[in-house]
Amino acid sequence: MFIFLFIFAKSAFGQDLKMARKVIDTLTSREMWGRGYTKDGMAKAASFISSSFAAYGLVPMDGKDFKQVFSYPVNTFPAEMTLRINGKLLLPGKDFLVSPESRGLKEAKLILAQRDSVSFINIEHRLLVLLKDKLTWSVAPEAADYTVIEIDRKAITETPENIEIDIENKFLPEFQAANVCALVKGTQYPDSILLMTAHYDHLGSLGKDIYFPGANDNASGLALLLSLAKYYAKHPQPYTMAFIGFAGEENGLQGSKYFTAHPLIHLHHIRFLTNVDMVGTGEAGITVVNATIHPKEFTLLKQINQDKKYLSKINSRGKAANSDHYFFTEKGVPAFFLYTQGGITAYHDINDLSSTLPLNKFEDLFRLFIDFNKALMK
């Protein structure tokens, strides 16, 4: 009997890993277009999560709709872009990035003046060109009156002297997004809530042809969130198990900020919140933000891990405004933010791919969550 149960458990968790990989493949696909601000990428991702919640048997948090719609401003670059330095054509995403707050420059041929070893400018057109060792992109909620181009220094062999540039930006003052919110009602204490969260948005696209897949950041977190949602739909708990996929995290934690200002559940009913972001690795363990302000729960988490030997290390970190747990913390909701360490170094670039994401500690993280949540309900 023991052997049967062991084999059954291994098989069940193996299915969860297959499901996680399929979710990550879907969220990082060209169809989702970086889960951002062009080609309905974020909206398609939100619909995928909503459909998943419904298929698993969860119910909308407000009893009506899984999606909590809101809006915020964002600067985008939806059109084809061209950049040449000293006549050499460079590729967006691979060889150069446009700083996310930049305005566009249309069909301009300009002379660059050198300021220092990495900075080149054209004052008249308010253009700054920077040489970088690594290209890392982000999202901006405003459009500036200047343009910044970041170039991978390995992409050029000569000092930049002239530039041909054709880049268009489009500022969206009220981009419509949605948090995706669901729950499994508790069997004994439905007003006591364990909330699990992860953001599903990423950076979207740069130009007409390049998008940022965002496998580790944060398709991995969504895969864990959906795996847990599916598990708890099949195994209802004494407490209500709630789940939120946040939009707009990459643009200043917009989704969690909106939810905490317009909550669909009573915030004081939340026994604990666990937020995950970038959980696709883990050979070097995990780090827990807010560990120092919730020592009792952190000790509990470490004790479970020590007993079960899920992860090599659990690192403690203090309060930080670096993910969607933050605005809940500011509202007095006890919360952790967990992320894995080790493995791939791709981050906010075009190399954060599903095919290179190991997921080598995903099953252990899943088990750790199950055990931690169980302990929180005692």
Low-confidence blocks of residues: 2-12
Question: What's the structural domain tally?
Answer: 2
What's the mean pLDDT score?
Answer: 96
Helix/strand/pairing category: alpha+beta
- Total number of helices: 7
* Number of E-state strands: 20
For this structure, what is the CATH class of the largest domain?
Answer: Alpha Beta
Largest sheet: 9 strands, mixed
The secondary-structure element order is HHEEEEEEEEEEEEEEEHEHEEHEHEH
Rg, Cα atoms, Å: 22 Å
Strand content: 25-35%
What would the principal axes of the Cα set say about the shape?
elongated
Summary tags:
7 helices; 20 strands; Aminopeptidase; alpha+beta; 2 domains; 378 residues; 9-stranded mixed β-sheet; single chain
Structure in words:
The protein is of the alpha+beta class and 378 residues long. It folds into two domains: 2-74 and 173-376, Zn peptidases (Aminopeptidase, 3-Layer(aba) Sandwich); 80-167, no CATH class. 28% of the residues lie in helices and 30% in strands. The protein contains seven helices and 20 strands. The protein has helices spanning 2-27, 41-56, 215-234, 254-261, 295-308, 326-330, 362-376, and strands at residues 59-60, 67-76, 82-85, 88-90, 96-98, 105-111, 113-114, 119-122, 127-132, 147-152, 162-167, 170-184, 189-199, 205-206, 210-211, 239-246, 270-276, 286-289, 314-317, 335-340. Strands 1, 2, 12, 13, 16, 17, 18, 19 and 20 form a nine-stranded mixed sheet that branches. A hairpin with a 2-residue loop joins strand 3 (82-85) and strand 4 (88-90). Helix 1 packs across helix 3 (215-234), helix 2 (41-56) packs parallel to helix 3 (215-234) and helix 5 (295-308) packs across helix 7. The radius of gyration is 22 Å and the shape is elongated. It starts with a helix and ends with a helix. Residues 2-12 have low confidence and may be disordered.
